[in-house]
């Protein structure tokens, strides 16, 4: 009985922590109304770094070329590709005079380092405001540049956007990938709203060139192969200089991984950078993940023994209902409402996957970006 009493008290504390996170942190994004900023039509350099992405470039670059925006250039970076990436880029440049090519040849000191390639692309860009996406991404509308750049102001020099993944019917993996993407977006949007921005995604991210040069570029974490997006934002973003953009026209869509192995490899690379976040961010994110794990473990332990089951069940349902409300409003904003149907199963699967990735990364570090 003493053990079960302890578990019940622990469950009460964990549910309290979860409710605080969902209502008072994530609710800042979930219940936020879209306020359309006035478009300033600032000249923008769109930067795309490609490594062996010939086919994706053929499919997606036209959606950037055809943006409805008065003044922008497209900086296409060929990062030492060994396929036809450079040829594809050159063909686009022949018919579009606003395309600038940066052909990066690998050197020993920066072999396979995306940050080196991006640095050359940023230096080659001619405009003061930079908008980043990946070679396998496409804007969902022709107003992507307009909606993202509209958030720049004298105070706001960083804009965090949403980079989703295309939907695949009857695929649990696809729903898992998109659920993880939604949860990540809810966290970085919400923390940005309460004045604690900690990351952005390179699939849809914008910042002023001055932010890059004032921080000496990626030099602080140049030896870390990943993190050109989240580690850089973790370094330079603060409560005053960061804005978020979540209007549907500002979204990008990427090709999701088609196998669990490929997705797992990708997430290993992403998760490996989190250990380099600022301590306050690691504590906030770590506490949320730990409370998630304990919520499910304690709920299973208490409900399986039927110990004080009305209290345990009531607490379980309270947290589940609040989660559904908050993630429901958030997923509606992000056009991902279908993930709600399998929310508990997706959450448990994600928790297990993240734990496996954490253990795997302790054993060996991922050291690649492609």
TrEMBL record:
<dbReference type="GO" id="GO:0016757">
    <property type="term" value="F:glycosyltransferase activity"/>
</dbReference>
<feature type="domain" description="Glycosyltransferase 2-like">
    <location>
        <begin position="45"/>
        <end position="175"/>
    </location>
</feature>
<keyword id="KW-1133">Transmembrane helix</keyword>
<feature type="transmembrane region" description="Helical">
    <location>
        <begin position="6"/>
        <end position="32"/>
    </location>
</feature>
<keyword id="KW-0472">Membrane</keyword>
<dbReference type="InterPro" id="IPR029044">
    <property type="entry name" value="Nucleotide-diphossugar_trans"/>
</dbReference>
<feature type="transmembrane region" description="Helical">
    <location>
        <begin position="283"/>
        <end position="303"/>
    </location>
</feature>
<comment type="similarity">
    <text>Belongs to the glycosyltransferase 2 family.</text>
</comment>
<dbReference type="InterPro" id="IPR001173">
    <property type="entry name" value="Glyco_trans_2-like"/>
</dbReference>
<keyword id="KW-0808">Transferase</keyword>
<keyword id="KW-0812">Transmembrane</keyword>
<feature type="transmembrane region" description="Helical">
    <location>
        <begin position="339"/>
        <end position="363"/>
    </location>
</feature>
<keyword id="KW-0328">Glycosyltransferase</keyword>
<protein>
    <submittedName>
        <fullName>Cellulose synthase/poly-beta-1,6-N-acetylglucosamine synthase-like glycosyltransferase</fullName>
    </submittedName>
</protein>
<dbReference type="Pfam" id="PF00535">
    <property type="entry name" value="Glycos_transf_2"/>
</dbReference>
<feature type="transmembrane region" description="Helical">
    <location>
        <begin position="309"/>
        <end position="327"/>
    </location>
</feature>
